[in-house]
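new request in #modeling-help
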Amino acid sequence: MSHESPAIDARLSFDVGEKPKPFRVEAELALDHGILILFGPSGAGKTLTLLALAGLVAVASGHVKVSGETLLDTVRGISLPTHRRRVGYVPQDQALFPFLDVAGNVSFGLPRALRTGPRALAWLDDLGIAHLAKARVDSLSGGERQRVALARALAVEPRLLLLDEPFASIDEESTEPLRELVRDVVRRHRIPAVLVTHDADEAVAMGDRMTRFARGKTVETGTPRTLLGREPAT
Amino acid sequence: MTADAVFPVVLSLRVATLALALIGPIGVALAFVQARARYRLRRLVDALILLPLVLPPSVLGFFLIVTFGRRGLLGGLLERAFGIRLVFTPAAAVIASAVVALPIVVKTVQPAIESVSADLEAVARTLGLSPSAVVLRVTLPAAWRGVLAGLVLGFARALGEFGATLMFAGNVPGRTNTMPLEIFTAYQTGDDARAGLYVGILTVLSLVIVLAANSASPRMLAR
């Protein structure tokens, strides 16, 4: 990781949905290091922006640079396909593979030879789920599922972590330890992260920077405390 | 059972197996395209896939003869280029069975693929899987029950095929007389015992197949 380059420098413009009235997203994102919060009400374009960063939604114009590496630059005709972007994605429902056990999920993105090796086990250990290695994913609690999804995303050593409302389906007791875990992992492994939320407390607890969305556009950027201090939680 | 009595059983199983080998991969691929791709002619392709299910078997048989017969579009070409004649051969029975089984395979597999969460596939792509690897390692394993049910039901349909086979493959004793055709012949000639034998075999086989398909895909078939 280059220390001179910002962790995230992105500008994205794209339409989704059917003509004649598609939904237009125009987003500008910047982060030096740590966690960037995408904040706003439901339907404001936060998740779509996350998907666009991962290359899962076609972008009409813009660029995405992560730690100096260009993933997308429409002017230069560069657009890495999703499977070459090395972004870790944790969707809101975790999307664990139901036909694999916990260890199978975590090692899913590793080359075949490494799937049964220590690398996946190390991540299970790091996220406190080593004892669940052979468990079926449908037997896990919300917090455990989230840890498995995180371990799976981190095991492939992504250059960027994308988290879509990661604590939305977690009971209150498990939320704080999991928040701490995410902050800790991001700090220790120096992986920049983008976290989508509409919860002001979560934004303040997790974010180093925050971008506020409204009707598909980024409307302001700053620290979560500054932005939310001026306009309290919705 | 005499060799003469066993022949229709073996032939039917062989024809249904080859028909499934022919349309299984095509059917699953078509189900995948129809489930995932959005293109201009999707509805028309959907209707064409369903057509063999709703057309009278004689119409299908006629189309097959027009296409693969000696003076047909493809049949003439095959005979001139390779000396291959299809009409009134076991291969014709395989093609007729494959055509009628295709819609069953596609229409059973398609909803199973549609029910696989797009998020699973999206996550797999971010984990470094190419689009084709996503199909093999995520979509098909997640939809395997529906795929298996589709193949099993397709086999059953191929096994029971009668009308199009009669027109296109004929009813040649010791060559193309599958069980359904043999039932018809035996009944026409008053040999009810022989007809009853194949009726029994086909009924038991079909029951076993439906039970297998049911247990593979309880949500789709069991009521």
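bot summary: Chain B has a mean pLDDT of 92.
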